[in-house]
Design a protein that fits this description.
Blueprint (H helix, E strand, L loop, with lengths): L3 E5 L15 E3 L8 H4 L8 E5 L11 E9 L2 E8 L2 H7 L5 E3 H9 L7 H8 L3 H9 L2 E3 L3 H10 L3 H12 L2
Antiparallel strand pairs: 1-2, 1-3, 4-5, 6-7
Helix pairs in contact: 3-7
């Protein structure tokens, strides 16, 4: 079953100044096949049926769909690419991960990083050692995370991805 729209074939009727019969009216129920062939609704002159077209294939991780314009061919869809900001909003960076999650993701990198290696990087910073050894979780915005990222040569984007991966463990 498809849904059809009763639309005018008169382009003037799409004008905002037109006050007669509506330019578009969704039929109150779905109709099989082509309604003009199977049903005689006594169409007013200058009107026809337009099908509600199926949604197109799209990648929801990089695109969205919106209703397109209504035409004699049907009521279609527009596929719109997401902006980088919209894509980032779909996959937000977790603000914190547990100690276990962080250590697991670091241990599973191409070049594994173990807790002892991190303690060596922290060195003589007693507060940093206490923070690292006793933290139940690590905040993305904590200065120690930034210092470790710098020591490991990781970019901000790499640290964000690290936190995303860690949050799934």
């Amino acid at each position: 079953m498809k849904t059809y729209y009763l639309i005018t074939t008169d382009p003037i009727a799409f004008s905002p100044a037109f006050s007669g019969f509506p330019a578009k009216r969704k039929l109150p129920f779905p109709l099989p096949d082509s309604p003009s062939e199977k049903y005689d609704f006594g169409l007013p002159d200058g009107y026809t049926y337009a099908p509600d077209l199926d949604q197109p294939d799209y990648d929801p991780s990089t695109q969205r769909i919106e209703r397109g314009n209504l035409s004699l061919d049907g009521y279609g869809w527009n596929v719109i690419d997401l902006t980088p900001e919209e894509i980032a909003a779909l996959d937000p960076v977790p603000q914190s991960v547990t100690r276990r999650q962080l250590l697991l993701v670091l241990a599973n990198l191409d070049t594994p990083i173990l807790a002892e290696s991190i303690e060596t990087m922290i060195g003589e910073n007693l507060n940093g050692l206490i923070e690292f050894r006793n933290a139940g979780s690590f905040e993305r915005s904590h200065p120690l995370v930034g210092q470790l990222a710098t020591a490991l040569g990781m970019s901000e984007d790499q640290v964000d991805e690290l936190f995303r991966q860690a949050s799934t463990l």
